Amino acid sequence: MRNIAIGLLLLASFSATGQGETQVFLSWYDGWGTHTVWGAGKISGSYNGTKVQCGNSSIPVRPILDTHESDGNPPSPSQTAEHAESVNVPLLRSLESRGDKCIFQTAATNEA
């Protein structure tokens, strides 16, 4: 009985902090080491494995479009800047509401 209570307490603490959620920023990758995280800023890193430091958490950055490899067709609905921003802004607000400020490079206003 005591083990069940401890397990429930641990589960509740994960839910309360949001750490049980999958958190990922969506980006456009330029092929030259820069991710544009729409709604947040830019970060340098490789195509895979790039993370943004937000307080004590490292949040993965997942490219949804490689602009360097573009075939000239418009992005699909799941690759648009608007879609990325619709995911990134709520995540950024959630992190900031917990006091976890994310560190991005400054982006031009028309880029992120």
Overall description:
The protein is α+β, with helices and mostly antiparallel strands and 112 residues long. Helices cover 29% and strands 24% of the residues. It has a five-stranded mixed sheet. A hairpin with a 3-residue loop joins strand 2 (34-37) and strand 3. The model is unreliable at 1-18 (pLDDT under 50).
Number of distinct helices: 2
Shape: globular
According to DSSP, the number of beta strands is 5
Record the strand order, biggest sheet: 3-2-1-5-4
pLDDT average, as an integer?
82
**What characterizes the major β-sheet?**
5 strands, mixed
> What oligomeric state best describes the polypeptide chains here?
single chain
Helix content: 25-40%
SSE class:
alpha+beta
Give the helices and strands as they follow along the chain. HEEEEEH
Proportion of beta-strand residues:
15-25%
Low-confidence stretches: 1-18
Distance between the termini: 51 Å
CA-atom Rg in angstroms = 17 Å
Question: Mind sketching the topology for me?
Answer:
Layout: H1 2-17, E1 25-29, E2 34-37, E3 41-44, E4 51-54, E5 57-66, H2 81-97
Parallel strand pairs: 1-5
Antiparallel strand pairs: 1-2, 2-3, 4-5
What attributes characterize this protein structure?
112 residues, alpha+beta, 5-stranded mixed β-sheet, 2 helices, 5 strands, 29% helix, globular, disordered N terminus
Provide a compact summary of the structure:
The chain has 112 residues and is α+β, with helices and mostly antiparallel strands.
